[in-house]
Amino acid sequence: MDFIKDYFFTLVVFIVPIIYSIQPLLLPALTIRKTSNNTSALSRKKNILYRQIKELEMEYDIGNLDKEDFLIRRSELKAEVSNVLYKLKKK
Amino acid sequence: MTPIAGSVALNLAFGCSILSIITLLIYNRTSDHRLFLTGQRLGLAVSFFVFIATFTLSYQLLISNFDIDYVARYTSFETPMIYKVSALWAGQSGSLLFWLFILSIFNTITIIQNQTRHHSLMPWVIIIMSATQAFFLILTNFITNPFEPTQAEFVVVNGNGLNPLLQNITMAIHPPVLYLGYVGFTVPFAFAFSALVNKDTGVLWVRSIRRWTLVTWLFLSIGIILGGWWAYQELGWGGYWAWDPVENASFMPWLTATAFLHSIIIQEKKDMLRIWNMILIVLTFSLCIFGTFLTRSGVMSSVHSFTESSLGPVFLSFVFIILLSSFGLMYTRIDDLRSPRKIESVTSREGGFLFNNLIFVVICFAVFWGTLFPVITEAITGDQISVGPPFFNQINIPIGLALLALTGIGPLLAWKGTSNRKLIQKFTLPTLLALLSALLFIIAKMTGYVVISFSLCVFVTVAILSEFVKGVRIRTGKFNESSIVALYKMISKNRSRYGGYIVHLGIVLMFIGFTGHAFDKEKEFGIKVGETEQVANYNFQLTRMYEQERSNHYAWITDLRVTNLSGDFITSLKPEKRVYFHKNPDINKRQPHSELDIFSTLNQDIYSIFSSVNNNNDTAFIKIMINPLVKWVWIGGYLLAFGTVIALWPRKD
């Protein structure tokens, strides 16, 4: 009985993880679904850019940014957002 | 779980880590996604086997299986349950397994968290993490195996037990927290290395690891503060930082990591300092490994112990491999690492950040040199020398004060550059108040660094609080909110900025505590029951001295009644003199230990140590220390942790 218990323990603890690890090699060739990843990466980028615009406005409001720099940075960020939105729309 | 299960698990983990690296390297050439999945799963399997090994050793410690050498060395039947658990990281092989255990937790989280993200970066991230695991698996499998059987030709009836200094609840928590900090930097390093390999050195990798770095930095900071707290509560010399090599080993990566945390803000916002950030993360990770080498190779006690075991050379080789491969790769990617923008003005926030970075690195170099100088000297001349606190204090106090000044100056500087008008407008109030306070401190007969430190604390506090006030004013004017609502919304919408400012305030409080050290007083005396001794503005009367036998030690306990000079009762202190392993017939194996008692207030700590008792058991030798402002160090630590948690708190996007 003890032998079966030990055998079962060894099987579960040591062999199952190895089978789990090499199982993908038994599958037919796989390709990555790049489209969905790109979409999520783009929407993450969009959120970051929106956040950066808000932070930029805050910096300007509390006087950590002069007007000229603020306007340049904001237009740069807005252009980047437009570009990302365009790419997202295309998908 | 039998000990053999632990050994087998470590063997399998090593095999899987090598296979994971090979599979992912082939994937990088073939792009066959099956290989990526296999490499990823092998990475998870490594972690799983390490968990099995760690739980096996913990179980053996709990059941006191003295057939295992490690269990017999660090526990005994009398060791309380919690310290049987903490014995896991008390010795060399156990602590290396514990390092590996935490790395495996981080490895698992990183793989699961990024299953559908960062496809280009992840293969190399897993390779680097698996390589680090493989390194620690080499150590635990082939050099210092925690499952080694006891080398005795007789049945071991009882173990040695845990060192009494480690039988303290802070010491049970401090190493795991510190390790979480040390080990955590593997993740940002892996992302940085992967970004270098993939020639993707822009802002993507920086954004992926910002939160990781902050969490890890928080753990390292708390670990260092807990270490100081433990030293203060347990070691009985009245201080919390002695520039000991083990302390320095954790402080060095903290310095470079703090510099890194600041400079990645510049890369994230302005895409500058790419090379610098790479250098900082490589240095931080190397210093984490180097720190483990310093504490585990025995090189600090004598350079000769370095060669007695192969642990030291293997560790040092790993550090060299990390440095060579990282800097070699950086050299080949130098064109990608050139930032498209440059710092335009010294009086810009970018400039402020760069200065702050340089100061951190200079302090790190000074600590590194001071720590290694005795080792290098011994290796060359054969003479054993020590570099003590005077060297470190002489170098680091002025640099540290410059850094303190920058924690106030930085937030006042504008991005790109600050006009003279703005400079005057922003700096007038903090500077005036700092100068005024300096005058008051001089009138109060304070001198030198004390005046500079306290005045800078005023400067930084005013500078940071004025940033809060300005932000609240703008919000109340713009959105018609009450001040409290405006403060809450301002912080919640700009967590990293205001969390960072709170951390800076925590640092100010810590500096207040550090400066209090200049006013320390102490006196050592012998005292009999009924006698009174005066120390500073207090009288200490010994009202009672008695003995008590407890489960794992024998104790002499004193009862000291503390009154002020007018006779008002302040507190009662009960420092103890203990002897651990008191039942051991071998008198040399009994370990004496002084258990302190501290009365702590915001103003000062009254620190009492029961050094010894005379042969007649009627005179206690007591040391009293009056340590002003120490509590502010711990309060500053709480504030630092609170600020970091605010900065870390996830946003609702």
Keywords:
heterodimer; A: about 90 residues; mainly alpha; B: about 650 residues; alpha+beta; 6-stranded antiparallel sheet; 4-stranded antiparallel sheet; 21 helices; about 10% strand
Q: What is the fold's blueprint, element by element?
A:
The complex is a heterodimer of chains A (91) and B (653).
Chain A: H1 2-22, H2 34-61, H3 67-90
Helix pairs in contact in A: 2-3
Chain B: H1 3-30, H2 33-62, H3 69-74, H4 81-86, H5 92-113, H6 122-143, H7 169-184, H8 186-197, H9 204-235, H10 245-270, H11 274-296, H12 303-308, H13 311-332, H14 334-337, H15 349-381, H16 389-412, H17 420-443, H18 448-479, H19 483-493, H20 495-516, E1 521-528, E2 532-535, E3 538-549, E4 553-564, E5 569-573, E6 576-580, E7 591-595, E8 597-600, E9 604-613, E10 619-628, H21 631-648
Antiparallel strand pairs in B: 1-10, 2-3, 3-4, 4-5, 4-6, 6-7, 8-9, 9-10
Helix pairs in contact in B: 1-2, 1-6, 2-5, 2-6, 5-6, 5-7, 6-8, 7-9, 8-9, 8-11, 9-10, 9-21, 10-11, 10-15, 11-13, 15-16, 16-18, 16-20, 17-18, 18-19, 18-20, 19-20, 20-21
Description:
The complex is a heterodimer of chains A (91) and B (653). Chain A is mostly helical and 91 residues long. Helix content of chain A is 80%, strand content 0%. Chain A has one domain (2-90). Chain A has three helices and no strands. In chain A, helix 2 runs antiparallel to helix 3 (67-90). The mean pLDDT of chain A is 78. Chain B is an alpha+beta fold and 653 residues long. Chain B has four domains: 1-167, no CATH class; 171-339 and 349-373, no CATH class; 394-518 and 633-648, no CATH class; 520-631, no CATH class. Chain B has 21 helices and ten strands. In chain B, the strands form two sheets. In chain B, strands 2, 3, 4, 5, 6 and 7 form a six-stranded antiparallel sheet that branches. Chain B has a four-stranded antiparallel sheet with strand order 1-10-9-8, with no helix packed on it. In chain B, a hairpin with a 5-residue loop joins strand 9 and strand 10 (619-628). In chain B, helix 2 packs antiparallel against helix 5 and helix 18 (448-479) crosses helix 19 (483-493). The longest helix of chain B has 33 residues, at 349-381. Chain B is globular, with a radius of gyration of 27 Å. In chain B, 48% of the residues are buried. Classes of the chains: A mainly alpha (91), B alpha+beta (653). Chain A binds chain B through residues 9, 13-14, 17-18, 20-25, 27, 29-32, 34, 36-37, 40-41, 47-48, 51-52, 54-55, 58-59, 61-66, 69, and chain B through 5, 8-9, 12, 16, 19, 32-35, 37-38, 41-42, 44-45, 48-49, 52, 116-117, 119, 207, 269, 349, 413-417, 419, 422, 425-426, 467, 470-471, 474, 478, 493-494, 497, 651, 653.
